[in-house]
Amino acid sequence: MVWSVYGITYFSANVINTTSKAYTFKPELPRLLATTAANMGAGIAKDRTYARMFGTVTPRGLPASSYLFFFSRDLVTMGASFNIPEPLAEEMHTALGMPLEKAEIAAQV
After folding, report:
1. φ, ψ for residue 71 (rounded to 5)?
2. For a 10 Å CB count at each end of the chain, is N or C smaller?
3. DSSP 24
4. At what angle are helices 2-23 and 28-54 packed, to 10 degrees?
5. Full 3-state SS string of 37-106
6. What is the C-alpha to C-alpha distance for residues 44 and 33, in angstroms, rounded to an integer?
7. How far apart are the first and last CA of the chain?
8. Residue 70 and residue 22: Cα distance in Å, rounded?
9. Gap between the Cα atoms of 40 and 32, Å rounded
């Protein structure tokens, strides 16, 4: 079930990347929003399922502020995972003279 969260998130990123190349638009904002929505939705569904499967008490609803925290956490994580590495690698390549292939690897770390 955990792997499905990753699969859904990466699938949404790949759909946006492919679509942006086919229709020539900048993918940054759509990719950020799509991956955040996919990761948040799949993560909450996973957590809800685990709570029902392994919980010892009847599950209750979450406060609205919890969803805001989920959104904030996922927005930052998805931005750092899917949007920042590419421009960071380009900057490392041009400003530091690092070979592009090495800069792409370093930017992912």
Report:
1. -60, -45
2. C
3. T
4. 160
5. HHHHHHHHHHHHHHHHHHCCCCCCCCCHHHHHHHHHHHHHHHHHHHHCHHHHHHHHHHHHCCCHHHHHHH
6. 16
7. 25
8. 32
9. 12
C-alpha 105 chain-centroid distance? 18
Q: Which two tokens stand for residue 14?
A: 């790949």
Reported pTM: 0.84
CA distance 34 to 81: 13
* Residue 60, both tokens: 């209750």
The one-letter code for the residue type at 73 is R
Mean pLDDT of 24-37: 95
Reported as a single tens digit per residue, the pLDDT across 62-77 is 899 999 999 999 999 9
Give the pLDDT confidence score for residue 2 in this predicted structure. Answer: 87
